[in-house]
Structure formats: structure tokens, C-alpha cells
Design a protein that fits this description.
152 residues, alpha+beta, Herpes Virus-1, 3 helices, 5 strands, globular, binds zinc ion
Length: 152
């Protein structure tokens, strides 16, 4: 019985975690993802335009650090000025946003820099490194995660 409640708690935590950065359903393919993304991150670097430290984004095309639209929108300016630097990484929730697709992006090519950002931000490895699951749709009846095969 204790096991069940433990499992339920774990599932709840996972659900909570998924809720955080992905209010909008992310896409898995974005043609604007740069081919050579540097996995260098600059978590403590302020916005290069206004020196703001919170809510910053990293341009994945040129690694410029700029603030979000909730601050002064310098990352949006950067995209409008460059026209093609559209994919950027949020230091707030480590999500990747594409200004052209106007969607969050989850893609294998982004995992390395996201991982680096996580380590730089929290000072430790992500809790579930093997859980990089890219789901294309919701019709995935994946209820097999209940390891209750201890019927001995
Ligand atoms: Zn895109
Ligand atoms: Zn700024
Ligand atoms: Zn850029």
C-alpha cells in the first residue's frame, strides 16, 4: 500500500514538472534550429543590452544573452534585427522557443545545451537524464510504468 502512494506521488511530481514550462504544446521539428549549437551556456551573464539578470534567453545561433519580453524584450529585438536568429533557450525554465514557429521546441539537437544549462543553473545533473522522451502526439497509452511485478 505504501508503494502505491509512493508511486502516485512520483507520478504527480512528473506531471507537475511537465506543467511548468509547457503550457503550450511544444513542437518536435523546427527547421530553424541552428545546425551547430554551442553547448556553452552563460547563466550568470546579464542581458547585453540592459544588464538585466533575470528572465534571460540565450540565442542558440550566436550565444548572445538577452532579456525576455517580460523585461525589455531584447531577445525579440534581436530576432527582429537578425531575421533568422529565431531559436533561443530560456534560462528561467530551460525551454527552447522559436520566434518564427511561435512554439516551444523539443528536439534531440537541443538536449546538449539544455543539459549544460541545467547543470550550470542548479549545480547538479538533471534528475532524470534518460527521460528524454519525444512524444509526437498524445495518443500514447503508455501505462506500463507501474513496476508492480513483485508477485513472489
Ligand atoms: Zn522554428
Ligand atoms: Zn534587456
Ligand atoms: Zn543571435
Amino acid at each position: 500500500m505504501e508503494k502505491d502512494s509512493e508511486l502516485a506521488q512520483q507520478l504527480q511530481e512528473q506531471l507537475n514538472r511537465q506543467d511548468v514550462g509547457f503550457a503550450v504544446k511544444p513542437i518536435t521539428t523546427c527547421p530553424h534550429i541552428p545546425t551547430n549549437i554551442s553547448s556553452k551556456v552563460f547563466i550568470d551573464t546579464p542581458c547585453q543590452e540592459c544588464n538585466e539578470l533575470k528572465e534571460n534567453w540565450q540565442c542558440l545561433s550566436c550565444s548572445t544573452i538577452l532579456c525576455s519580453r517580460y523585461v525589455h524584450g531584447h531577445m525579440l529585438d534581436h530576432f527582429l534585427n537578425t531575421k533568422d536568429h529565431s531559436v533561443c533557450l530560456s534560462y528561467s525554465d530551460l525551454s527552447v522557443w522559436c520566434f518564427i514557429c511561435k512554439k516551444y521546441v523539443i528536439n534531440k539537437g537541443l538536449e546538449q545545451v539544455k543539459h549544460a544549462a541545467y547543470v550550470a543553473k542548479f549545480g547538479e545533473e538533471p534528475p532524470i537524464t534518460s527521460n528524454i522522451v519525444i512524444q509526437q502526439d498524445d495518443n500514447n497509452n503508455n501505462a506500463s510504468a507501474s513496476g508492480s511485478s513483485s508477485s513472489k
